[in-house]
Structures are given as C-alpha cells and as structure tokens.
Amino acid sequence: MTDHNHKNKGSPVNTPLLLATAVICGLSAHANAATFAYISSPGDGLISQYSLNEDNGALNLVSQVAAGDQVNPMALSPDGKTLYAALRVKPFQVQAFNIDPTTGRLSAKAKAPLAESMAYLATDRTGRYLLAASYGADTLSVQPVDKAEPILTYKTGLHAHSLRTDPSNRFAYAGNLGTDQVLQYRFDADTGALSPIGSGYVSVPANTGPRHLAFSADGKFLYVVGEMSGTVIAFAIDHNSGALTRIGVANGIPERLNLAPGQVRDARNNDLKDDPTPRIWAADLRLSPDGKLLFMSERTSSSVSAFAVNTGTGELCFLDNYPVEEKQPRNIAFSPNGKWLLVTGEKSQQVGTYAVNAGGGLNRVGEAASGKGALWIEVLSTSAH
C-alpha cells in the first residue's frame, strides 16, 4: 500500500537557493542565439558544458566545472538562469549554478540540503520549487528555492524514480518503479504541497517498472517508460481533476534484440558486469518539440527506440529501434529545433549527436568528449534580443 502522507523532514533548509533574489544580467542587445547542453558525469564529479550548432548538429565541449562527488540528476530553472545538480553522497545536497546568459558558462551560486539521495530532479513550472525522487529511500520531496523552509517529503512504495508537474502546474506525477504504479497528485503552487488524486495512483502491468515521464505540450497526455518492460504507456490527463486514464501502450523492444522482459536489475550490478541475462533496461523518455516523435533509451542493447505520436488522440505507434555508439545510454535530449538528439553513454568516452529524420530515423553526425560516466542532459537555448 502506498503511503501518501507527508512529513517535514529534518530541520529547515538553512541555505536557501535564493533563485528569486538572484541578481542576473539579462541578455545583451548584441547577444546571438545559442544552444548549450549541460551533462553531468558522476564518475569525475563534473558538469560539462557543450555548444550545439543547430544548423549542422556539431557538438563542442566548452567548459567543465567541478560540481561534487557523484553529481547525478540535474534540472534547469524555467527562466534558464539557474542549473540545479544533485549530489548522491552524504551529506545529500543540491548545488545551484548561475548560467551566464551570453556564454552559458556556469558559476557556483549556493548549496542546500536534500532530503535523501536523489535519482531525479526537476522544478515546478514556475521555478519556485525543486522536486526530487529518491529511488533508494522510496521518497518524493518538494522544497522552495528562495525561502528557508522545511523540505516536504512523501513516502512512496518501493523505488520512486521521477516527479514532475504537468504544463498547467496544477498536478504532479511520479513513476514508482517497484510498485508498478504511477502516482498522481494535486500540486499546490503556493505551498509546494502534494495531495493525492483519488486513490493516489494508477496501476500498470506487473513488472513494467515505471521510470521517467514526458508530457504533451498541451497537457492532455502523459507518457511513462517502463524500465523493465521497454514499453511506453500513454495516459490521458483529466483537465479538471488531473486523474489519469490509460489510453494505450507501445512496445519499444523488437524481438531481434533478444532481451528478457520484466526482470529487475540489481542496483549493485548497474554496469551489466557478469550479468547472465540480457534483460530490458530502458532509461530515458523524451518528446520532440513538435510533439510528433517520442524517443526511449535502452541500456543493455545500447539503442534508442522511436515512436510516432498522434497529437490529437495521444496514441503511440512504434517506428523502429536504432543502435547508438554510446554504450549504455542513460539520457537523451532533443535540440530545441527538434533536428538533433543528444545521447550520453555511461560507458562511453563521447557524447553523440544524431540527426532526426521525419520518420524517427537516427544518423550520427557529431560527437564530443564526455566526462566519466556521462549521464544527465539538460539543454538550454538562448535567443537573440
């Protein structure tokens, strides 16, 4: 039974991230449009900044900053001025960085405690709250970034793996991998509090392992990737209540991959070492900017699966699965113009850029050196003024 009651965790956050009071210069009148990618690498504690040429897909390493041991999930503020990065060693903390509006370079801004070791980080749609999910502690958390207030924590079933608010910022959803549930909440944008919608969850088929989430831009549909099933489940979101209704499922694992479904991977064997079973190990899920394509990464086969999205009905159709050169691809991310897909590999020395064709096909066009164990990707586009 999932416990949806919350409690205040520990002492108040003594070091607020002070997003609201940060003084940051705006873009200069002569600034050129630019696209930057930020990639965390827990193996060396770095965040690498890349420039992405949206005309040809060229990727270049610009700079690297030391973020801290086991830097892992990250989140961009909606205004593009702050990058948050969670450190997964005690004392669990989030590091906030200012983003230079012209160069995209990062500078350390503030640190604050986190409730637990967090596998997932996001902000709400206003940027006032930092949302997090702890896989190991079965916990969700919400904390303000500009006030010294207690962190709100919510116990979940086994292995919470994501938490995001919908485009309207009225509802929040979480992938609960170990319970085969997608948790559904109302989100109070004034206090950050979560309250369950109905029973507080919708169930998915056994051994799916709900992991990451993606929303349609209009807020009508939610997509959830199954880590152990390699499927993507589509839900309709009730406009008034936020309640989820399952409308379809698409399998992203073709038979030719010879992967076993529904078998959890022990966290102690997170790198496939000596694993006798080639099992499905899906990871990330990203929707294209135009909403017509959905991509899923699969680590065991080092591949990416593409789905077509019916933007009217929300239904999915599997297109194909494409091998990528990045070994054990954890995160993927679209460029803002939708022409390129960035891919990191936990066991790769490079980050790759792939051209995306209209049918979802991928063609590798660029690469750049990665940090050790490259993992989380956040992409930022700055506009000319």
UniProtKB/TrEMBL annotation:
Keywords: Carbohydrate metabolism, Glucose metabolism, Signal. The keyword Signal applies. Transmembrane segments: none annotated. GO terms for molecular function: 6-phosphogluconolactonase activity. The keyword Signal applies. Gene3D superfamilies: YVTN repeat-like/Quinoprotein amine dehydrogenase (2.130.10.10). GO terms for cellular component: cytosol. Residues 1-33 form the signal peptide. One of its GO terms (biological process) is glucose metabolic process. Belongs to the cycloisomerase 2 family. This is 6-phosphogluconolactonase. It comes from Pseudomonas rhodesiae.
